Amino acid sequence: MSIVHRFPHKATRFALLTIVSLTTNLSIAYGLFYAGVPEALAFASALLTAFVLNFAGCRWFVFLSTDTPLVRQLLHFALTNGSFRLLEYLSLLALSAIGFSNYYIRVITVLATSFVLKFFVYGRFVFGQNRPS
Question: Membrane-spanning residues where (predicted)?
Answer without folding.
Answer: 12-34, 40-62, 74-98, 104-127
